[in-house]
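Reopening: GAF domain-containing protein still failing for me.
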Amino acid sequence: MTGSWLALEPGADPAERARALRRAHEMFTAAGTVPRPVRDVVAESWRRSVRAGVGPDVTASVELMDGDLGTYRAEHPLARVMPLVRELMGTFAADGEHLLAVCDAHGRLLWVEGHPATRRRAGRMNFVPGARWAESAVGTNAPGTAVAVDRPVQVFAAEHFIRRVQPWTCAAAPVHDPHTGRVLGAVDITGGDGLAHPHSLGFVQAVARAAESQLALLTPERPGADAAELTALGRDEALLSADGRRIRLSRRHSEIVVLLAHHPEGMSGDELLCALYEDETVTPVTLRAELARLRGVLGPGRLVSRPYRLAIPVESDAAVVERRLRAGAVTAAATAYAGPLLPGSQAPAVARLRRRLADDLRASLIASRDPDLLADWAHAPWGEDDRDIWHALAAIRPTAVARSRLAALESELTAPNGW
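Support: Ran it again with your exact input. Result attached.
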């Protein structure tokens, strides 16, 4: 039961479970221990919430309003499937006095619709469009936790980390880009204890899958000469999507395609050799063999030589982040950043691209002084030892967690070798 993604097992008494969860929540906030009957998924979320510096009495902040919200929603990929989401969930939400909600990949609510009286009640806790409901901002909740763990999840009563949200129950499921697999956001149903039923979790999961299918249908078929998509952030083996195929590249082929996508004009054999290998004893024959194998993987006519270049345009996720940073869209850039570029690569040119992209984004985050964006980076695997980010976060949101982590990092920096 504790490992289940369902809030209540068959036969459980909701009222008794709610009382037990309130006692468990008070014990956790007082002593940091998680007793039964708290499920594993909730216990782990509570711990992440504390590490992010979330307190049980915080309130969600509204980040987007009026024109900014309208523009952001109109440009978001999930806007294209909102008519379908409303068709599938709208009547259920209105008749059951529930709310349907859709958030982006950062847990920011984009749409909150449903029963008018329920919307007014939810508005008192800022469960409104434009508000940030990420775990790192407001603790355990269904839409924020669903995008954090990339799984459908129910959150029942006092499983919510914030006390003022504990009268509510919700279920949410992530929605993915059908071509890249990246999380775009989540669909959520929020209301009373009745939503703890297993059907509500299956319902939002079915809606999420329907939304993904609709997105796939709405995305035009790509002819052979059209752009391919390259996903290389946060993964050692890049994914290339073209002509309806998704090709998982080897580590070396990932490095080559990343470099050629960054240099659409092409690279000579000598340039590629220096870009890929630190070892100067590696011969051009080795590189030519790798390129021959890659040509077979990509298919005829996709990789040409003199100079080596990709014969089709390639849109990489790293280029999306770079473009958004140049436009000053820091939140959008952070949303698109799924992690370091080919983090395991030691190819000199890839390492330089990885450092430059991370440094540019870090600098933009620090300059933005947005505590939620800083917290997202600080609590990500690539940011947990980032002293500059923790320093900026502690200056803006001086929680005990932030101050403690910053002190530990500064202590490590000044400690003598061998300590």
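The chain has 17 helices and eleven strands. If you still see a failure, please send the error message rather than a screenshot.
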